[in-house]
Design goal:
Small_GTPase_ARF/SAR, metal-binding, alpha/beta, binds magnesium ion, binds guanosine-5'-triphosphate, metal ion binding, 249 residues, 47% helix, single chain, Rossmann fold, Arf-like_GTPase
């Protein structure tokens, strides 16, 4: 009855003919289900294949990247040079950075505040990009100094020449760094030479036990006065410091 009315046929079909029609309709429905199931299976298989390929592809890219990571890091770092500026708190690291990197004379004067983390200044000079990184010299920050040695091309270790009681501490910290970076060129800057109680370059050499440093190490001792005021004749000027750094980089 149902089949007939759906076809809208006015003539009544014999019941003998109705059976094959029902079978055919059932077959059609079955075929449709099978085709839907097959499509779903193909889609699922395709997705699984896609996911597997993506996973493999990602792994390959990741592992390739990991394998060549040091090379790409080097490529990234090509054209960059880093000067790491360390030394006890108050030695004059920020003052040095400011004097070396400010083009504006007015900006070079005035007192620096203690560095609570680090100072980073990047200069674009014709040969390369020159990055200066100062890590604060406070006791709580000194433990992080070693972490910054790896990417550094030159270490500048600033010492307050007038801080006689802390020269042994400055020496200990300097030698800790020297041990950790055996190939690193080092410039020791005996700062605050303008102060009446400042030790001389020769005294500083002795106090910091620089004679015990390996002969093949590139090690330089300069004296400076980085605060504003009359420059003492015994001090190296900024140009000398700049030129030395450029030679070492
Ligand atoms: N008299 C004199 N004072 C200086 C000289 N260089 C720096 N100062 C002063 O010393 C103080 C400390 O200088 P900073 O440059 O902040 O010292 P720092 O090494 O950066 O210290 P932290 O950031 O705390 O590790 C500041 O008041 C400076 O003005 C110098 O050559 N002579
Ligand atoms: Mg500072």
């Amino acid at each position: 009855m149902c089949v007939q009315s759906a076809r809208g046929s006015g003539s009544r079909q014999p019941s003998v003919l109705r059976v094959p029609a029902l079978v055919a309709a059932s077959l059609m429905v079955l075929l449709r289900h099978i085709s839907t199931a097959l499509s779903a299976a193909v889609a699922a298989l395709g997705s699984a294949l896609f996911m597997a390929l993506s996973f493999l592809y990602t792994r390959r890219v990741w592992s390739t990247h990991a394998e060549y990571c040091p090379i790409s890091e080097e490529e990234d770092e090509r054209g960059k040079r880093q000067v790491l500026v360390l030394g006890l708190d108050g030695a004059g690291k920020s003052s040095m950075l400011r004097r070396l990197t400010s083009g504006d004379a007015a900006a070079r004067t005035g007192r620096c505040r203690p560095t609570r983390g680090f100072n980073f200044i990047s200069l674009n000079i014709p040969a390369f990009q020159l990055d200066f990184l100062e890590v604060g010299g406070g006791e709580d920050l000194r433990r992080y100094w070693l972490d910054y040695l790896r990417k550094t091309h030159v270490l500048v270790f600033v010492v307050d020449s007038s801080d006689r009681p802390r020269l042994p501490l400055a020496k200990a910290e300097l030698h800790r760094l020297l041990e950790e970076g055996p190939q690193l060129p080092v410039v020791v800057l005996g700062n605050k030479q303008d102060k009446a109680d400042a030790v001389s370059g020769a005294e500083l050499h002795e106090a910091l036990a620089l004679h015990s440093v390996a002969a093949d190490r590139k090690l330089f001792l300069l004296t400076s006065q980085l605060d504003s005021g009359a420059v003492r004749k015994s001090c190296q000027d900024l140009d000398t410091i700049q030129n030395l750094l450029l030679q070492l980089l």
